[in-house]
Structure formats: C-alpha cells, structure tokens
Amino acid sequence: MSNRYARIAFSEAARERQKLVGSYRDYGAQLENGRDEPQPLELRERGFVRAADSFFLGTATPDGWPYIQHRGGPKGFVQVLDDHTLAFADLTGNGQYVTVGNLTENDRVALFFIDYPLRERLKVYGRARMVERVDDPELVDRVAVAYNGAIKKITERAIIITVEAYNWNCVKYIRPRFTKERLDEAIALERRTAAAEQQRLSAEIEQLRRENEVLRARLGVETAAP
C-alpha cells in the first residue's frame, strides 16, 4: 500500500501537531507502514474525476507563493488517460499565464475536486507536463475532445498530470449546491416517479371499481331471489 500522500502532505510540524491532538495514529502513522510509491487511481477516483465539471488547480510561484486557479468545462473535460495520468485542455484565458509560468519552473501541482450535491471532495497531488499545440496538435485536440469545435480552436496546450497521491476528504462543512442540470435531472426523475405512481393508483382504482360492480351485481341478484 502506498504512503505517498502522507509523505507529501504531513510535514514534521504537521505530525507533531497530530501527536498533540491525538490524530497521529490516523494520519502521520501511515509513514511507518506502506511503500513510498505513486498511488494508482482506482475505479472510484476515476469515475469521480470523469464526472467533474470543475476543479481547482494549485501551483506555486518561484518565490513559493501559492496560486489557485479554477478550471471548468463539460463533464469529461478532465480525462483519465490511465491509472496514473490525468489530462485537460488549457484554453486561452486573460493572458496572465501565471499557472503556465509557475509550471515552467515547478511541475508540482495540487488538484481539488468537489461534488457539492454528494458532499464529496478529492485532493490530488501530481506533477504537470505542458504540451504546446505547435508541438503536438493531435494530442491537444484529443485532450480537448469534450469541447465543441469553437472551444477546441482556443486550446493552446494540453496539461498532463502524473498522479503522485490522492486523498478523500470528509463531508464536514460542505454546503450542498445544485447546478441547473442536476436540478432538472432530479425534477424529471420526480415527475417520472409521480407519473408511475399515478398510473399504479389509477389501475388500482379501476380494479376496485370493477370489483365493486361485480359485488353490486351479485347483491342485486341475491336480493331479487325469492
């Protein structure tokens, strides 16, 4: 079992604090077991990433200042190339190129995926490699496959992430939020459920009506008999 996440995230100061508050056994102690090797993406992680329509990307400036950028797109815009590799298209933005500049000097990244309705979040550590369109246009187009033709044209590069480690967060303090798409799906499901229930009740009422008619007919015959 890999302990790469603990090795990256839990510094000596973090481990000392864990010992003080009693959480070391759950976290820092992972360094005492397992192997220092990249953590493969399992079925749950791959599915979660593929279903995401946004994530936050963390990089660092040469001076060590953290920088966070939001990335969004249609579901599937972050591709899972294999158990250790993610990729997404880097579209033309506001021209600051902070992330590109940071990655030029430091390939370490953190990706933060969150599903508000399900109250789930996934943190991913990795190393990023940038592939410019001029160097490999076919690769860039493949990575941008989730976008339509107009968006593909403003894809400047592909960013390939080699995953080092990941960790699931607890649900604490995640306030549920719902996109219009998810609300529409929920409403449509509720309508289908209500329609099916109405159909079932109508059939049941019709059956009872027929049974009632039969009983009335029998009672009429019995009453008329001498």
UniProtKB/TrEMBL annotation:
It comes from the Bacteria. Keywords: Coiled coil. InterPro entries: Pyridox_Oxase_N, Split_barrel_FMN-bd. Residues 191-225 form a coiled coil. The keyword Coiled coil applies. The keyword Coiled coil applies. Residues 46-147 form the Pyridoxamine 5'-phosphate oxidase N-terminal domain. This is Pyridoxamine 5'-phosphate oxidase family protein. It comes from Nocardia terrae. The lineage of its organism: Bacteria, Bacillati, Actinomycetota, Actinomycetes, Mycobacteriales.
